[in-house]
Amino acid sequence: MSSLVLLAEDTVDLLSSPRKWETECWVCTEFLRALKINVSQNDLIKPKSEPPDVICLGANFEVFIVLDKDRKLHADWKQKLSLSRNAQSLEDLLEPYRPPIKIPAKQILDFLKPTLSKKQQNYIKRGISLGDIDVLAYVNLTEYTLDLDTPFPELDELHQQGWRSISLFGNSYCRVLYAEESAPDFLCLHAGNTISVVLE
Prior knowledge:
This protein has helices at residues 2-14, 20-34, 73-86, 105-125, 156-161, 185-190; strands spanning 44-45, 54-56, 59-67, 101-103, 134-140, 144-146, 165-169, 173-179, 194-196. The chain is of the alpha/beta class. It has a single domain (2-196), classed as Protein of unknown function DUF1780, putative endonuclease (Hypothetical protein pa4535). The strands form two sheets. Strands 1-2-3-5-7-8-9 form a seven-stranded mixed β-sheet. Strands 4-6 form a two-stranded parallel sheet. Strand 1 and strand 2 form a beta hairpin. Helix 1 runs antiparallel to helix 3. The radius of gyration is 18 Å and the shape is globular.
């Protein structure tokens, strides 16, 4: 029980606002690990101003987390921490298992689009060029998961926004949706390929 409390405490702390950059570094590190690229803390650079969030191996990662509607990751883990602290037995922590619903790639992209559009509009208003920014979305959905047997649709709408590259990964997959020629080689190499992964 104590180990579950410690895990929840550590996660709540990591997801807090003061540790935002560490969370973004975790997203970058796990994504690169899925691409079979090992990085150290020295490879992760905090820029003087944002965007991007994290500079790593020539990539200017703009990181965001994709969640189910009205769900907040920090609040989720605070609730888990409260349950862990108050549990008298492991049975108190058991929840009915509901497997996520498999949805096609197009619907996964629909979860990304509102945040991408909002960021695009915000940065354009601020006079920030998107042509050097590599978007990285961590898809953390509880109700849905990607059906790996479905093809990804044409990405014209996302291309037109002007990002240098867009990548996403979930708890079982990652994919570089597209990468312009000016993007780092490792993003160009993996563009258009879906890779199965297991997060540690």
